[in-house]
Specification:
By secondary structure, the protein is an all-alpha fold. It has one domain. It contains 8 helices and no strands. α1 packs across α4 and α7 crosses α8.
């Protein structure tokens, strides 16, 4: 499969591309920008995704990821930097993937606890990049910027579901 940077974002002004990639300059102005991008992604999930079915969430996320690949890759070009920390659209669009099958996860604990656990696990996977996640950064353009965060979100989702399954099994035998 060939990954190349989409051409469509070239038509947009630099200010728009950079503002989208930095979430209105949040990524430029606050310390620990990836954490702020992830926090905004949790809010985005809570406001717009928590009531959707997993399929609806996957479709919406696929579209957001495609848009983020284009915007983040073009922002790299315009800023003249490879995956700069100020680009946080990638964390923002990946966060909803942490909570796929949300309704099932909320059997485990109150929603706020699941949101906080998902946020913490996502930051763990995003910062340390285990399980081959780091290799995804080598993909060209926006693909490398976004797909490592998508992988971190999917690892988070899998971890939350494994914890939930373990809790169900443990509860059954206690």
């Amino acid at each position: 499969m060939k990954f190349s940077q989409p051409a469509w974002p070239r038509a947009f002004p630099t200010a728009l591309i950079v503002n989208l990639a930095t979430l209105g300059s949040v990524g430029e102005r606050l310390p620990a920008p990836g954490t702020w991008g992830a926090a905004a992604g949790v809010i985005w999930f809570a406001l717009f995704f928590r009531l959707h079915t997993p399929l609806e969430s996957l479709v919406a996320n696929a579209l957001m990821i495609w848009l983020a690949v284009g915007v983040c890759g073009e922002a790299e070009v315009r800023l003249g930097q490879k995956d700069p920390g100020m680009i946080i659209l990638d964390e923002f669009v990946a966060m909803p993937l942490c909570f796929l099958a949300w309704r099932w996860l909320t059997d485990l604990a109150p929603p706020l606890v699941i949101l906080l656990a998902g946020f913490a696990l996502f930051r763990f996977f995003d910062i340390l990049k285990p399980l081959g996640i780091k290799k995804l950064q080598d993909l060209p353009g926006g693909w490398g910027v976004v797909l490592d965060d998508v992988a971190a979100a999917l690892a988070t989702c899998a971890s939350l579901h494994v914890l939930h399954l373990g809790w169900l099994v443990g509860r059954r035998f206690l």
